[in-house]
Structure formats: C-alpha cells, structure tokens
Amino acid sequence: MKLLVVCLGNICRSPMAEGALRARLASSPLAGRVHVDSAGTGGWHAGEPPDRRAIACARGQGVDIGGQRARQLTREDFDAFDWILCADRANIRDVLRIAPSARRDRVALLLDWAGVQADGEIPDPYTGGPEDFARVWRLVDSAAQAVVARLVAG
Ligand code: 4NP
To answer: Where does the chain have alpha helices with state H?
Structure first.
C-alpha cells in the first residue's frame, strides 16, 4: 500500500500527516509494509524543510519531521501511489485538475478516507499560531491512528 498526503505548500499539513502516519505505522503490525510520502499542489516551497512551527509541533509529540523536503505533486504520482489523500477541498480540486481520468476515484480527503470525519478538512495553519498547528497535529494523528486500524482490519 502506498499513500501520498497532499496539501498546498507541502511544508505544514502534509509533512505533519506524513510524520504522524509513519510513526503510527512503525509501531503497528504493518511496520515496513506501507509506503508514505507527501507533496504539495503548489511548488513554491520545493526543496525546503517543513515550516519550523510544524517541526516544533511534531517534535513536541516525539516525531521528527525535520528531514522531510517539500516537493510538488506530479502526474507520475498517480501511478506510483494507491491513494492521494488531501488536506482540504481546494487540494482535491487542484489534484483532480491533473489527475488521469482512470485515477480520479483514488483521490480523497484524508480525514474522510480515514473515517475520522465525513467530508472533514484540515485547516491551513500557515497564517495562524501554535494552537493552529496543535490542532492540525491532533487531526492528522487521529487520522493516522484510524488509517492504521483500517489497514490492519483489512
Ligand atoms: P500547507 O500550508 O499547505 O499546509 O503546507 C501552506 C504553506 C505555504 C503556503 C500556503 C499554505 N503558501 O502560500 O506559501
């Protein structure tokens, strides 16, 4: 199973989701069997590490995301990954703009796909404060736990 988490800049939400997913998977029976990556619909931050506030927030929960580097979503990603899991509906719209028609049904909202919140979005914390990043962490970690449960259940 290969999962790609997508947000706008790939420096806040999707790196945090990637970190939470990797951590929850590593301590599960699925360790080593699920490939997780993240990307942004935009390429402005390509090559950069996550936002320092995102790094600090994850570190506070014992997860190191400082080694991640941002990249932009490509058409090749639709073949390389089983699911493209988006932070919000704007991401879905942008992803569908370049999605091959045969892969459109493999694009979903992360919180919805995980079963955490139907049609749920992860709010962009970029212009917010530490509490907004903390909220993102709670959401992506809930999603990560639910994804592990979903995949373990088969
Ligand atoms: P992200 O947050 O999509 O969660 O990575 C953002 C990061 C950067 C920008 C917007 C959102 N930006 O406009 O540069």
So the answer is: 13-26, 52-60, 77-80, 89-98, 110-114, 130-153
Kindly give the distance from the C-alpha atom of residue 33 to the centroid of ligand 1, in angstroms, as a whole number.
Answer: 29
Locate tokens 């212009």: which residue? 127
In total, how many domains does the chain have? Answer: 1
Domain that holds residue 99: 2-153
Q: How far, in Å, from the CA of 140 to the mean position of ligand 1?
A: 16
**Residue 2's pLDDT is what?**
98
Cβ–Cβ < 8 Å for 4, 39: yes
CATH assignment at residue 41: 3.40.50.2300
Q: Which of 62, 68, 82 is nearest to 9 (CA)?
A: 68
DSSP state of 47: T
- Does 154 score more than 90 pLDDT? no
pTM score of the predicted model: 0.98
Query: What is the atom index within ligand 1 of the atom nearest the CA of 16?
Result: 4
Tens-digit pLDDT profile for residues 8-57: 999 999 999 999 999 999 999 999 999 999 999 999 999 999 999 999 99
Query: What is the pLDDT averaged over residues 98-126?
Result: 98
